[in-house]
C-alpha cells in the first residue's frame, strides 16, 4: 500500500496544485470519484491491466465516462498519461491523496465512523463536536452502518483509529487470554 501511495503522490500533487490554481478542486473531486468508481468494475479493471487492449480505445471510453463531470482537457490528459505509463490502477490512491490535500487546504478532516446501529442527527452533531474539539479541526463525518461491530463505534480520522466497538473489545480480550 505504501508503495502505491508513493507512486500515486506525484500525480495527486500535480492534480491538486493545478486544481487549486484554477479553483476547480470540486470538479477534480468528481472526476477522480468517477474514475475510481469506474475501476471498481471488474471488466474495466481487467481491460486496463490487459496489454492487448487498445489504449486509445480505452482512453476514449474513460473520457466518455467522465464527460458528464465537465472534466475538460486536463482530465483527458490525465487519463491518457496514466494509461500510457501503466499507472491507471493508482487512481484510487490518487483520489485518496487528492482528497486529503483538499481537506488539509480547506481546514477540515474527513472522519469515517462505523456504527452497529444508525446514528440520529443529534448523535452525529454531538460526535462531530467532540471530534472537532479533540482533533482541533473542522470535521466531516462519513457514517456507515456495520452490524459486525455488534455495538459501539469505530472511528478513523487520518492515522487515528478509535475502536470503541464491542467486536474490538472482544478481540482485545481474546488476545489477552491467548497471550
How would you sum up this structure in a few lines?
With 179 residues, the chain is of the alpha+beta class.
Element layout with pairings:
Layout: H1 2-21, H2 25-39, H3 42-49, H4 55-66, H5 72-84, H6 91-106, E1 108-115, H7 121-135, E2 138-145, E3 153-157, E4 160-163, H8 166-178
Parallel strand pairs: 1-2
Antiparallel strand pairs: 1-3, 3-4
Number of discrete helical segments: 8
Q: Give a count of the beta strands, DSSP E runs of length 2 or more.
A: 4
Query: What structural class should be given to the helix and strand makeup?
Result: alpha+beta
- Unreliably modeled segments: none
CA-to-CA gap between the ends? 29 Å
Give the strand order, joined by hyphens, for the main sheet: 2-1-3-4
Element-level helix/strand string: HHHHHHEHEEEH
Mean of residue pLDDT values: 91
Overall shape: it is globular
Major beta sheet summary: 4 strands, mixed
| Percentage of residues assigned to helices | 55-70%
Strand content: 5-15%
Amino acid at each position: 500500500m505504501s508503495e502505491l501511495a508513493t507512486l500515486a503522490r506525484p500525480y495527486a500533487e500535480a492534480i491538486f496544485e493545478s486544481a487549486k490554481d484554477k479553483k476547480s478542486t470540486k470538479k477534480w473531486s468528481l472526476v477522480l470519484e468517477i474514475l475510481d468508481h469506474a475501476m471498481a468494475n471488474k471488466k474495466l479493471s481487467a481491460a486496463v491491466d490487459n496489454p492487448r487492449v487498445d489504449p486509445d480505445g480505452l482512453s476514449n471510453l474513460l473520457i466518455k465516462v467522465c464527460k458528464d463531470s465537465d472534466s475538460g482537457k486536463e482530465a483527458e490528459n490525465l487519463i491518457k498519461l496514466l494509461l500510457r505509463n501503466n499507472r491507471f490502477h493508482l487512481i484510487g490512491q490518487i483520489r485518496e491523496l487528492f482528497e486529503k490535500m483538499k481537506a488539509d487546504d480547506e481546514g477540515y478532516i474527513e472522519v469515517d465512523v462505523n456504527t452497529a446501529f444508525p446514528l440520529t442527527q443529534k448523535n452525529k452533531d454531538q460526535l462531530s463536536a467532540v471530534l472537532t474539539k479533540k482533533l482541533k479541526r473542522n470535521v466531516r463525518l462519513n457514517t456507515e452502518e456495520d452490524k459486525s461491530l455488534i455495538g459501539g463505534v469505530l472511528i478513523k480520522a487520518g492515522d487515528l483509529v478509535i475502536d470503541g466497538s464491542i467486536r474490538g473489545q472482544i478481540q482485545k480480550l481474546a488476545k489477552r487470554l491467548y497471550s
